[in-house]
Amino acid sequence: MTSSPTSAPASAALLERASSVIPGGVNSPVRAFRAVGGTPRFIREAQGPWLTDVDGRRYVDLLCSWGPMILGHAHPDVLAAVRSAADKGFSFGTPSENEVLLAEEIVNRIAPLEQVRLVSSGTEATMSAVRLARGVTGRAVIVKFAGCYHGHVDALLAAAGSGVATLALPDSAGVPAEMTADTIVLPYNDIAALEAVFAARGHEIAAVITEAAAGNMGVVPPAPGFTAALRRITREHGALLISDEVMTGFRCGRAGWFGLEGEAGYAGGAPDLFTFGKVMGGGFPAAAFGGTAEVMSHLAPLGPVYQAGTLSGNPVATAAGLATLKGCTDELYPRLEATAHAIADAASAALSGEGVAHTVQWAGSMFSIFFRDQPVTNYDDAREQDTAAYGRFFHSMLDAGVHLPPSAFEAWFVSGSHDEEAIGVVLDALPAAARAAAQ
Ligand code: PLP
User: Fold this and answer.
1) Nearest residue by C-alpha to atom 1 in ligand 1
2) What backbone torsions phi and psi does residue 241 show, to the nearest 5 degrees?
3) 195 C-alpha to ligand 1 centroid (Å)
4) Measured distance CA(24)–CA(362) in Å, rounded
5) pLDDT band at residue 163, thresholds of 50, 70 and 90?
6) Which end of the chain is more exposed for a tag (fewer CB within 10 A), N or C?
7) For residue range 272-322, what is the model confidence (pLDDT) as tens digits?
8) Which domains, from first to last, does the chain contain?
9) What is the pLDDT of residues 209-263, one digit of tens each?
10) Is the predicted pLDDT of residue 161 greater than 80, yes or no?
11) Is residue 206 a contact partner of residue 141, using CB atoms and an 8 Å limit?
12) What is the rounded CA–CA span in Å between residue 355 and residue 437?
């Protein structure tokens, strides 16, 4: 399943050096390839849909920095905006115009949103949204769903997806039981479980936080009616609904998952709070949480809920985010979906050809291929897949010049820069990868 380290000698050498000064040699655990084995590629540069590693090998990028690089790497418009902003200074610690422009761009895209507060990571956004919900309601309990990942917030590191799922950790050490004592974890897509918890403890619950469409146990969209039930039940009990759109925001459509129509969407009413990150930072550290002006008025300096950040609204990050969102036009999304379908359909055909059990699941242009033949509706289902087959598939693709997410519990991402050449490299790599998965 693992590739020999000699197939990437410069990456292997850097990993060894990194490992003496950085735990595990990486600054975010899934990057270490522990779930798929082998040597993580140290990337030297990236352009459009291509990554180039320190050994000089090129890969088609289906990771897109875990979501942000929706226009492709080093997009000329974003690069120009970043250069122009950086020319004028890196951080002021005062209000600045770019923050206003980015906040306006976000608020204008999502009708119920009136105000956002800018922060530097998705983790900060969800942490702050939870604090705000607790401050607004005067209640402590938070409901989350197993397999959903909301960043490494102590209270939300319970049955979390993403790296916690990849590494098969039950939870994180270093999170005292008191920190998750007010966190209730329910199965995703289970309305009956939600009803039961609210019937018993509704008056204690400050908020339900959910990934708008789950992407951190692999892609698991909400079942028809689930999102509407979340809205109805929270409203009945005076709890807030926090829609975490850090991954789906501006990725599934120009107004994120919220903007999509249909039974899996927000026909039942808007959430009280949204969180955003990834795409809205264009590859730089910028994220946000927001809601109505009334809810947001509870935040300092207007209200008693404290929240702050030295680099919040950083002028270079906000310039990158704004230029990226300007490129997120109505025309972009059908193109992303066409690219994603070309890849997923070919992958599915290749796997079927080799008799490999699999299921493809979608949220906009985000998709995952689960190596099991049944649909995945929750975290238990996701864990039933053949992760070893994914590892073999992953390494065959990597050897052929395609960089997939190094875990079976993650979404695949495409960008507006994935052209025919890049898609062709992916399609050419698939038959051998399907054979490897079948072994
Ligand atoms: N929420 C969701 C849905 C995410 O996917 C992530 C990151 O993957 C986060 C929150 C945390 O964001 P960050 O890694 O920027 O802290």
Assistant:
1) 150
2) -115, 120
3) 27
4) 32
5) low
6) C
7) 999 999 999 999 999 999 999 999 999 999 999 999 999 999 999 999 999
8) 5-70+330-438 (3.90.1150.10), 76-327 (3.40.640.10)
9) 999 999 999 999 999 999 999 999 999 999 999 999 999 999 999 999 999 987 7
10) no
11) yes
12) 10
From the CA of 123, give the closest atom in ligand 1. Answer: 16
Helix 191-201 and helix 226-236: axis angle, to 10°? 10
* Helix-, strand-, coil-residue percentages of the chain, each rounded to 5: 40, 15, 40
Structure token digits, residue 281? 């930072």
Dist. CA 311–CA 348, nearest whole Å: 43
Query: pLDDT-derived band of residue 2, with 50, 70 and 90 as boundaries?
Result: very low
Residue at token pair 């990834």: 278
Question: Is the C-beta atom of 165 inside 6 A of ligand 1?
Answer: no
**215: which 2 tokens?**
């992407």
Q: What is the per-residue pLDDT for 3?
A: 46
Closest atom of ligand 1 relative to the 121 alpha carbon: 15
Cα 115–Cα 116–Cα 117 angle in degrees, nearest 5? 130
- For 284-305, b where at least 16 C-beta lie within 10 A, e where not — what string? bbbbbbbbeeebbebbeeeeeb
* Exposure letters 199-224 (e unless 16+ CB within 10 A, then b): eeebebbbbbbbbbbbbbbbbbbbbe
CB 65 within 8 A of CB 275: no
Helices 315-327 and 76-87 sit at what angle, rounded to 10 degrees?
A: 160
Q: Whole-angstrom Cα distance, residue 149 to residue 219?
A: 12
The pairing of beta strand 402-403 with beta strand 58-61: parallel
For residue range 80-116, list pLDDT tens digits in order: 999 999 999 999 999 999 999 999 999 999 999 999 9
d(CA 271, CA 255): 14
Distance CA 199, CA 291 (A): 26
Distance CA 212, CA 187 (A): 15
Work out the burial of residue 13: count CB atoms within 10 Å of its CB; fewer than 13 is exposed, 13-18 middle, 19 or more buried.
Answer: middle
Distance CA(415)–CA(324), nearest Å, equals: 12
- Active site members: 149, 244, 278
CB atoms within 10 A of CB 410: 28
Two tokens, residue 131: 């604090």
